[in-house]
C-alpha cells in the first residue's frame, strides 16, 4: 500500500489544481517571453495551471473565438486585441474582474487599467500596449537633406521629394487602425455619441490628405490583404515612409536584416490631437469559475514582475505597464528616438472603446480602398460608408 501513496498524492494534487485553458496570439519575437511566463507561472505554484494554445494573429483568433462562443469549446482566458474587448463585454462574453484586482502592484500605470474598462467596469487585463510610429528610411532622408517630419504638411513634402519613377515616398495602409491613428492625431474620432462619424471634418481631412498623395504619385496604397507587400515596399526601398505600431519593427528585425537605417518619429499631431493606444489584453470569458478568474489574475500579477516586464518591453517594444519596470529599462530608454516614441503614452488613449465599431469598420475600410485604390473622391466614399453603418445601426 505504501507504494501507492506517492502516486495517489500526485493524483490528488492534479485534481485540486485549477485548469485554465488559454488561447493566445503572441508570435515572434514576443512569444518566447510569454511562453517563459506561462512555464514559470505553472512551476511557481500548484493552485493553477495554464493550458496555453497559439491561435493565430488578432483577426484569426477573433474569428475562432466567435465561432467557439457560438458552438462551444471557448477557452477560459483569451489574449486578444484591445478594440475587441468592448464588444465581448457588451455581449456578455467577458466577465468583469474588479472583484479580483485588490492586490495589484501600486505602481501599475492607472491609464493602462482605464484602457481595459468598459462603462466603468474592468473587463480585461493589459498585456501589452503600443503607440504608433512614423517609420522612415534614414539613408533616403539623408540623401535628400530631409529631417524627420513633425507635421503632416512635412510628411506630404517629404513624400513628394522622395518619390521617383521606381519608388513612392510613402506606403499607406487602408486598414482601420492606421487611418484612425491619423484621425486621432488631427483631434478627431471615428465615433461620436455612439454613432459613426465617418463624415466628420477630421476624418474627411485625413482621407483627403492620403488621397492627394496617392493621386500625385507620391504614395502607394495597400489594403490589409497586401500587408506583406506594404512591408516589402519599405524593405526593398520601393517606399520610404510608413505608419505602424512601435511593435512592428522588432517583428521585422526578428525575421530579416535591413540594408538601411530605420528612423522612428512620433506621429505628427495637431493641437488637441492624440495617438491610439492599441495592443493586447487578457479576457476572462463567460463560464469561468471564480477560481479560474482568480488564476487568470494571478498569472497577470506574475507577468507584471519588473524583470519580466523589462524583458517583454525590450523584446516587443510594448510600453512598460508599471514604473518599477522602467528602472530595469534605463539603458533601453536612453535612445532618443525610442524615448520620443514612448513619450507619446502621455497623449495616448484607447483607439476604440465603442463596441459598434467592430460592426462598422468594414464599411470604412471599403471606403478607404475605393478612394485610395480606385480614385473615388474622399467625401463620396465616406458618405457611402456612413450610410451603410447607420443602416446597420437602425436595424
Automatic annotation (TrEMBL):
InterPro entries: Bact_solute-bd_prot1, SBP. Keywords: Signal. CDD domains: PBP2_UgpB. The keyword Signal applies. SUPFAM superfamilies: Periplasmic binding protein-like II (SSF53850). Residues 1-16 form the signal peptide. Pfam families: SBP_bac_8. Gene3D superfamilies: Periplasmic binding protein-like II. The keyword Signal applies. This is Glycerol-3-phosphate ABC transporter, periplasmic glycerol-3-phosphate-binding protein. It comes from Thermus aquaticus (strain ATCC BAA-2747 / Y51MC23).
Amino acid at each position: 500500500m505504501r507504494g501507492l501513496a506517492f502516486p495517489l498524492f500526485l493524483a490528488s494534487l492534479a485534481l485540486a489544481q485549477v485548469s485554465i485553458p488559454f488561447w493566445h496570439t503572441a508570435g515572434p519575437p514576443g512569444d518566447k517571453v510569454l511562453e517563459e511566463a506561462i512555464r514559470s507561472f505553472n512551476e511557481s505554484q500548484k493552485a493553477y495551471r495554464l493550458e496555453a494554445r497559439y491561435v493565430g494573429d488578432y483577426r484569426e483568433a477573433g474569428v475562432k473565438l466567435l465561432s467557439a462562443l457560438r458552438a462551444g469549446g471557448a477557452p477560459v482566458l483569451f489574449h486578444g486585441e484591445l478594440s475587441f474587448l468592448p464588444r465581448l463585454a457588451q455581449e456578455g462574453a467577458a466577465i468583469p474582474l474588479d472583484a479580483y484586482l485588490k492586490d495589484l502592484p501600486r505602481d501599475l500605470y492607472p491609464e493602462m487599467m482605464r484602457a481595459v474598462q468598459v462603462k466603468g467596469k474592468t473587463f480585461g487585463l493589459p498585456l501589452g500596449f503600443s503607440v504608433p510610429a512614423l517609420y522612415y528610411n534614414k539613408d533616403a532622408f539623408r540623401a535628400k537633406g530631409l529631417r524627420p517630419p513633425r507635421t503632416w504638411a512635412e510628411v506630404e513634402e517629404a513624400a513628394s521629394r522622395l518619390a521617383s519613377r521606381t519608388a513612392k515616398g510613402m506606403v499607406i495602409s487602408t486598414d482601420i487602425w492606421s487611418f484612425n491613428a491619423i484621425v486621432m492625431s488631427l483631434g478627431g474620432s471615428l465615433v461620436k455619441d455612439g454613432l459613426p462619424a465617418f463624415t466628420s471634418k477630421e476624418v474627411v481631412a485625413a482621407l483627403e490628405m492620403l488621397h492627394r498623395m496617392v493621386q500625385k504619385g507620391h504614395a502607394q496604397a495597400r489594403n490589409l490583404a497586401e500587408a506583406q507587400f506594404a512591408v516589402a515596399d519599405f524593405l526593398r526601398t520601393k517606399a520610404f515612409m510608413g505608419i505602424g505600431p512601435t511593435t512592428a519593427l522588432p517583428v521585422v528585425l526578428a525575421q530579416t536584416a535591413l540594408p538601411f537605417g530605420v528612423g522612428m518619429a512620433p506621429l505628427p499631431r495637431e493641437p488637441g490631437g492624440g495617438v491610439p493606444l492599441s495592443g493586447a489584453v487578457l479576457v476572462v470569458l463567460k463560464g469561468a469559475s471564480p477560481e479560474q478568474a482568480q488564476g487568470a489574475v494571478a498569472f497577470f500579477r506574475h507577468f507584471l514582475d519588473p524583470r519580466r516586464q523589462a524583458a517583454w518591453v525590450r523584446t516587443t517594444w510594448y510600453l512598460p505597464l508599471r514604473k518599477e519596470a522602467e528602472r530595469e529599462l534605463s539603458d533601453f530608454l536612453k535612445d532618443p528616438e525610442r524615448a520620443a516614441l514612448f513619450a507619446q503614452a502621455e497623449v495616448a488613449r484607447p483607439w476604440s472603446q465603442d463596441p459598434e465599431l467592430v460592426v462598422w469598420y468594414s464599411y470604412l475600410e471599403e471606403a478607404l480602398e475605393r478612394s485610395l485604390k480606385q480614385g473615388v473622391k474622399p467625401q463620396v466614399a465616406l458618405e457611402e460608408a456612413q450610410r451603410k453603418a447607420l443602416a446597420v445601426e437602425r436595424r
